[in-house]
Amino acid sequence: MTALLNELGWEILYVCVAHKCRLFKKDAGTELERLYTEPETCMRYRDQTMESARILGADKVFVNESDNKFYFWGDEEVRKLVDILEDFQPDIAFTHWMKDNHYEHVETARITMLALSYSVSCEVYAYEAGPWQSMVYFMPDFTVNIAPVMDRVEKSLMCYDQPRANGKWLVKEKKAGANLRGHMSGYEWGESFKVLRWPTKDPELILPKLFKSNYRWGGNAQYMWGNQYEF
């Protein structure tokens, strides 16, 4: 989605609510502990996230710096995020899906929705994480065709060379998910989303008008997504 919007000339901002190199007790004395406690290594990992965003055409800012803690937000984090959103004034916002196996993704979705309710009125969408996280709980409202930018997506993921974020594995996971969503929607590669908040100004959503034939609502003639709720 990011690369598609970038090619259409949109200004895009990634907001990272928590960036950390997390360690557990079992990591004591291991190579992982050495890597995640070296300042130069942690900075290199952060640079990888910045380069990945750059390849897709986005700027990136951080609400919190690395602190090696589990992520739970408080009043200070909400206020920081509200300030960022008020300064940027987005027309569209994307966040994690609330039903996710990764609790920090859930916390990210919660703080995002809260901060958006305080700051700006824009369209809001949820995206899905990988097959082990939100995909198993995610029934798409729509899918976009990312085949035209799949090479940039792969290149951005290959920036990562971390013990818990390896580029080759991330590409493999992305292809698995994108191939499934594309197959369900008639594309080679697809990314799927859910609508969390409809527009408050223009009565029509922005994305269908932008992407046209590269945008398709979920479901097909036989298996409408609504079947799971109606029967």
Write the SSE topology.
Layout: H1 2-7, E1 13-16, H2 31-37, H3 39-56, E2 59-62, H4 75-88, E3 92-96, H5 103-119, E4 123-127, E5 142-145, H6 150-157, E6 161-162, E7 165-166, H7 167-185, E8 190-197, H8 206-211, E9 215-217, H9 227-230
Parallel strand pairs: 1-2, 3-4
Antiparallel strand pairs: 4-8, 5-8, 5-9, 6-7
Helix pairs in contact: 3-6, 4-5
Summarize the structure.
The protein has 231 residues and is an alpha/beta fold. It has nine helices and nine strands. It has a single domain, classed as Rossmann fold, CATH 3.40.50.
How would you explain this protein's 3D organization?
The protein is α/β, with parallel strands linked by helices and 231 residues long. It has one domain: Rossmann fold (3-Layer(aba) Sandwich). The chain is 43% helix and 16% strand. It is built from nine helices and nine strands. Strands 3-4-8-5-9 form a five-stranded mixed sheet. The protein has a two-stranded parallel ribbon with strand order 1-2. Helix 3 (39-56) packs antiparallel against helix 6 (150-157) and helix 4 (75-88) packs across helix 5 (103-119). The longest helix has 19 residues, at 167-185. The chain starts with a helix and ends with a helix.
How many beta-strand segments?
9
Return the CATH architecture: 3-Layer(aba) Sandwich
From the alpha carbons, calculate the radius of gyration and give it in angstroms. Answer: 18 Å
CATH superfamily: LmbE-like
User: How much strand content do the residues show?
Assistant: 15-25%
Count of DSSP-assigned helices: 9
Shape: globular
Percent helix range: 40-55%
CATH C-level class is Alpha Beta
Order of helices and strands: HEHHEHEHEEHEEHEHEH
Number of domains: 1
